[in-house]
Specification:
alpha/beta, Rossmann fold, 178 residues, 8 helices
Length: 178
C-alpha cells in the first residue's frame, strides 16, 4: 500500500502522524533522530504551521522524512471528539489523517488528543515515550536518553510534573540496569 508515494508495510508502523508537541520538544532536545526509523512522519497542515511558527528549524531536519499533508475534511467522528475533548485544529487534522489513512500511531503530548486517539483505537506516544522507544529501537543509548530526560526542564518547553519525570528516569535506569 502507498500513501503519497510512501510505502506502508502492514506489519510495522512505518508511517506515523505527528502533532506539534513532539516535533517541537524533540527538536529542542536535538533528538528528532528518534523518529528516523519511520519511513515518514506525516504532518497535517495546521500542525506544520504551528511548528513553523514555534520551531521552524524542526521542519528542516534531514534525519527524518517529514511530509506536509493537506488534510481531508474532518470526519463526523472527529468532529464529535473535538467537542468532547476540546481538540485544537492540529489535533483534529492529525486524528483525521490517522483515520482516513488507517494509520495506527499518533505522536502527541496532548492529553486530550491521547484520550481521543485511544477511543479511536489509535496508539498515541509522546516525547517521553519516543525517547524511551529509541533505546528499544537502538537509535539512542540508555545513557543518551537519560541525559535527554534529565535535560527536559532546562532545554524543552515540555510540561511534565517533576515527580513523573523522576519516576521515568528511575524506571529507565532499573529496566536497562544502568
Amino acid at each position: 500500500m502507498t500513501l503519497n508515494g510512501v510505502y506502508m508495510a502492514k506489519t510495522n508502523p512505518t508511517l506515523v502522524v505527528a502533532d506539534s508537541g513532539p516535533l517541537i520538544h524533540l527538536d529542542e532536545l536535538n533528538a528528532l533522530d528518534v523518529l528516523s526509523d519511520f519511513n515518514a512522519v506525516l504532518v497535517p497542515n495546521a500542525v506544520w504551521l504551528e511548528v513553523e511558527h514555534h520551531r521552524p528549524q524542526a521542519l528542516k531536519n534531514k534525519k527524518i522524512k517529514l511530509i506536509r499533508q493537506t488534510t481531508p475534511p474532518v470526519v463526523e467522528q472527529i468532529r464529535a471528539m473535538a467537542t468532547l475533548y476540546a481538540l485544537h485544529q492540529g489535533e483534529r487534522e492529525a486524528l483525521t489523517l490517522c483515520l482516513t489513512n488507517n494509520i495506527k500511531l499518533l505522536i502527541t503530548d496532548d492529553t486530550a488528543a491521547r484520550l481521543a486517539a485511544k477511543s479511536l483505537n489509535i496508539a498515541a506516544h509522546g516525547t517521553i515515550g519516543l525517547l524511551i522507544r529509541s533505546v528499544r529501537q537502538e537509535l539512542r543509548s540508555t545513557s543518551e536518553v537519560l541525559t535527554l530526560l534529565t535535560a527536559i526542564p532546562q532545554k524543552s518547553t515540555l510540561h511534565i510534573r517533576p515527580s513523573l519525570l523522576n519516576d521515568v528516569i528511575a524506571r529507565l535506569k532499573t529496566e536497562w540496569e544502568f
